[in-house]
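Methods, example record. To illustrate the input and output format used throughout this study, we show the complete record for Fibronectin type III domain protein. The sequence lines were provided to the predictor; the line carrying structure tokens was produced by it.
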Amino acid sequence: MRYIIILFTFFLTVAVTEKAYAFENGLLEGKKATSDAYYSYDLDKITDNDLDTFGYIHQVYFSGKFYFDLDDEKTITSVFLKMNKDSGLGYEIMFKDRNNNILKKFSISDYGDGKETISRNGFTSISPINYVKKIEIHFFYVNLVPQDHIKIYEFDVYDSPPFDEDPPSDVVDLRFLASDSAISIFFSTPNDVDFAGTKIYLNDVLVATLDKTKTSYSFADLIPNTTYTIKITTFDETGNESNGVTTTVKTKIPIVSDVTDLQADAKYDRVRLSWTRPNSEFFSHAKIYRKKVEQKSFWDQIFGTTSVSAETTSDGYTPMFETNGTYWTDLTVTPDTTYSYKVTSVNIEGNESQGVTIETTTPSEPVPVLTGVATTQNENGDYVVTWTSPARGTVKLLIEGREYAQVDAATKQIVIKKEDMKTDFFGAYAATLIPIGEYGTKGQAVNVPSLGGKIDFPLSFQDFMETVVSILAWVAPFLLLSFVFIFWRPIFNFFRKSFAKGGRVKQ
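The corresponding predicted structure is encoded as:
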């Protein structure tokens, strides 16, 4: 029941307002129209200032009209017309002078533009028409059934604009686009004849007044992640302003700036990245990406293809780690390899910046060195060879040049069965240790020392003999040449006697 009362009150208010608005100071007020149409009735009610009454024309086979004669020549500036929906093929309003010449004529439509058409539903402002003495409404080719009528509730003209208290309709189809620092709004304006423009409010403060041709507006320099109240009102030529349409729009969280001072410290087995975080309340964390940089041949660069996995971005980077700190160490690198790292900033909504990149190359793996090698025997008589370093990579044991065992360097010992141990020409153990780095780099071989001893003779018998042979290979030519210089005379006499006797040597 409450809703019915509210609706009735609203309807009554609108009706009273329209009546007060429409029918003051009209030039035709109280005048009765003259008609040449068949079956026209109650034409005096067309100008009685009452929208509940009407005059009507029942039947017009070809054309018809009714008209008013003014007392004096007038300058007409606006027209009020209220009639039922079009029942025929056309209507016209003509303004004539005292000699019955047409000064201006308008067709009748739902929305009058004041230039060529007059609205059938209210006021239409027109350019002033001077010397008007006669006003005619023409009907063309109307053929109504007995139950139909052309109903004219009110018709009047004015020589000055009537007092207007009603604002135009509000804008419709309101839309908006928001960024972190700007909001753009879009809307459709009303079709009211006297609509003049819109006013834009931001948080109840008027920020712009637009003419009736404008259907959009943009707010700039706004605060990110902030809710704003936007109101759009319409106003007419009299200055009446509507209540407006209000909406709230929140600006977005911005993409935070990239990290700064990105640095990379490369070792053969790790790369440490460090950076400075952006100073932003919307910063959440940094995201680290990596890709291996490989030198491609000329033909690969032209015809080669790139395979991108689901975990690899379009630019070839693979996500590695996320942290809200200022450094990260990559322990999955290999020596002698060039890597490119990209670090992006991620805001609290998960949106990333473009990121900054840095390229670095890991050095070669250091050559491993065996130190602290010693030999002991356990209770079974087996030989236990130990070392203090290295602790990473592997250690290989050779006996008489053949591989006997290979263990993780971190164990720091190798056990040799007593029956497997061999000795060389000098009585030393014919066993050699070779350290191998994590990435395959071999270090210098070390002989297994005697029990309780240290490494006094770094060469095995085989190594010794190979060294002696190498030395002789270099020295032998010089020794032969020395013998020639020392014993040249006996050798010369020997060959001379041999040739003197016919090349035969006495036995």
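Annotations derived from this record:
The longest helix spans residues 461-486.
Residues 75 and 130 are 4 Å apart (CA to CA).
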